[in-house]
Specification:
Order of helices and strands: EHHHEEEEEEEH
Shape: globular
Helix content: 25-40%
Number of helices: 4
Strand order of the largest sheet: 2-3-4-5-6
Largest sheet: 5 strands, antiparallel
Structural class: alpha+beta
Length: 144
């Protein structure tokens, strides 16, 4: 088996807001287009027939299912690609004093080139930095 298929990178960003505030914002699928351009594109993520769907993601139409709401900061989500392949994305919001850290585990998919893996890592890092800017610039998380 190709060991590159099992490669993971942990990408993180420190956020100057409480973990609860970051989680409250980032756990709302409708907010994805504002910060997760790599997933939601710049379009909309909407609930269609009980499923969250990004119709204008860079990967095409994708379905997104999140871990149930929780108090642990778990933002894991599965993305079902147009091909039918489902990619599991572990994400955590971790308390860090008065702030927090958001950590995304990027896993290399079988057959993914080094360049594609780097490009995915760059996209995730940009998304996490966008999340940081948005959450730090708002006074309070949106109502749930």
């Amino acid at each position: 088996m190709n060991s590159a298929a099992w490669e993971s990178r942990h990408l993180g960003v420190r956020v100057g807001r409480r973990a609860e505030d970051v989680y409250a914002y980032a756990s709302q699928p409708a907010n994805l287009p504002e910060w997760a351009h790599g997933l939601g594109g710049t379009g909309t993520v909407e609930r269609i027939e009980g499923r969250w769907v990004a119709t204008s993601s860079p990967m095409g139409r994708v379905e997104i299912s999140f871990a149930p709401d929780n108090d642990l900061g778990v933002l894991d989500h599965d993305v079902t690609l147009p091909s039918g392949e489902t990619v599991h994305n572990p994400v955590r919001v971790i308390a860090d004093g008065a702030g927090s850290e958001v950590v995304f585990t990027l896993r290399r998919r079988p057959g993914m080139s080094d360049a594609d893996f780097r490009r995915d890592a760059d996209t995730v890092a940009a998304d996490l930095n966008r999340l940081k800017r948005i959450v730090e610039s708002t006074g309070a998380p949106p109502a749930r």
